[in-house]
Amino acid sequence: MSSPFSINGGACVAMVGKDCVAIACDLRLGLQSLTVSNNFPKIFPYGDVYLGLTGLATDVATVSDLLRYKVNLYRLREERAISPQTLANLVSSSLYERRFGPFFVSPVIAGINHTTGKPFICGFDSIGCIDFAKDFIVSGTASDQLFGTCEGLWEPDLAPEDLFETISQALLNAVDRDALSGWGAHVYIIEKDKVTKRLLKGRQD
Amino acid sequence: MDTLVAQYSRPLFENEGSSQEEQLELIQTLPPLSLKFALPPIAQPSAFLRATTDDHSNPDCPIKIAHGTTTLAFRFKGGIIVATDSRATAGNWIASQTVKKVIEINNCLLGTMAGGAAGTMCAGVTPQEGPALYYIDSDGTRLAGNLFCVGSGQTFAYGVLDAEYSYDLEDEAALELGRRSILAATHRDAYSGGFINLYHVKEDGWVKHGFSDTNPIFWKTKLDKGEFSNVTSELD
């Protein structure tokens, strides 16, 4: 009940489509049963790679800032944008550095690799073990529900608009069965040459 | 010695239970069927309830009562308003969004339910008392009063109710206040939500005023009346 992963609540999901990827999160920030904010997005852009962070809100803020700092240094030193695969390894090693006093976060990455042109998603546990997936990644207090909705709705090679519908329905219906997530959602559809960000007006109870 | 022992000792179970005559008397003096309460076949109902449902004293208890609720009832000049949410949770899992937390006892008596140790409310109109409202809980508290909110969302409901309550409210305004108080609680309390169940208890019995989804009510309240300005409805 008072696990650091479920004090603030929150949910995040990423999906692969045909030449596109999607990532979505809810907007709730709470203290156990009390909903403190309904405008706490959990997705952070690093160039055109996106990172979703659920878990303890203080660590969500710390880890997202730490990675912004590291990705900025990477861009300066390499003079190029970071690829999703490289960001995944950076997240992994940054988390494992704290092996015996971890950040209480469950990160999710979504992006398109611009050298190969291929969509990429992955997830992590709190100490940096990478979960590569060809279909979808879920995280947060509604992860059990998200596994269910994603298994039921996802199919291979979805076009961007269909992928948007699929990830939105998956997230909205999952958080409606979780007391600690919801209160609206953000959805990013990432294609080779454009990114679309949308707000979902979810249930506010 | 034997005489002494005989004088001071008694059969083991002499005073246990009632004698044949006492039992007969008890049965014969019972009131007619309609006034009897059915009781479970248990020696101590309170101890049984604790052992089977109390998470604190027995973490392995076989029945996990769904906590988290918002219920309210208040007295006003037009009678009594009773309103509840409809969510049932087991931990963070939302087990149901369509629970009926108002018990229709008869055509002029209503009860409300809040899980676990939280209380219940009884609202009704009697010839002797007029509109009567009681708060009752599992450790025997029984309070008469004008206004009660019970459950995990009680503080949020009290916030709205206390600010707007008056005994001289008109029927429509009183119903709207009950609805608005539950709406506030379902918004801020993670363990309350679902549907708003509304009742009006009048002298000639109660009237049900719907079991309505909070979602359209919330967006109507926000977008039409400009309340809930904390909620984002557009990307910036």
TrEMBL record, chain A:
Annotated membrane-spanning segments are none
* Cellular component GO terms, alphabetical: cytoplasm; nucleus; proteasome core complex, beta-subunit complex
UniProt keyword Nucleus, yes or no: yes
Q: Give the UniProt keywords, A-Z.
A: Cytoplasm, Nucleus, Proteasome
Q: Provide the coiled-coil residue spans.
A: none
The record's Pfam families line, in alphabetical order, gives: Proteasome
Q: Which GO terms describe its biological process?
A: proteasome-mediated ubiquitin-dependent protein catabolic process
Question: Origin, by domain of life?
Answer: Eukaryota
What subcellular locations does the record give? Cytoplasm; Nucleus
Chief location? cytoplasm
Record note on quaternary structure: The 26S proteasome consists of a 20S proteasome core and two 19S regulatory subunits. The 20S proteasome core is composed of 28 subunits that are arranged in four stacked rings, resulting in a barrel-shaped structure. The two end rings are each formed by seven alpha subunits, and the two central rings are each formed by seven beta subunits. The catalytic chamber with the active sites is on the inside of the barrel. Component of the proteasome complex.
> What role does this protein play?
Component of the proteasome, a multicatalytic proteinase complex which is characterized by its ability to cleave peptides with Arg, Phe, Tyr, Leu, and Glu adjacent to the leaving group at neutral or slightly basic pH. The proteasome has an ATP-dependent proteolytic activity.
**What does the similarity note say?**
Belongs to the peptidase T1B family.
What name does the UniProt record give this protein? Proteasome subunit beta
This protein's species is Glutinoglossum americanum
Give the gene name.
PUP3
Automatic annotation (TrEMBL), chain B:
Q: Which domain of life is it from?
A: Eukaryota
**Entry keyword Lipid metabolism:** no
**Which Gene Ontology terms of cellular component type are present?**
cytoplasm; proteasome core complex
For whether the record's keyword set contains Signal, the answer is no
For biological process, the GO terms are: proteolysis involved in protein catabolic process
Q: Which InterPro entries match?
A: Ntn_hydrolases_N, Proteasome_sua/b, Proteasome_suB-type
Q: Which UniProt keywords apply?
A: Zymogen
Protein known as: Proteasome endopeptidase complex
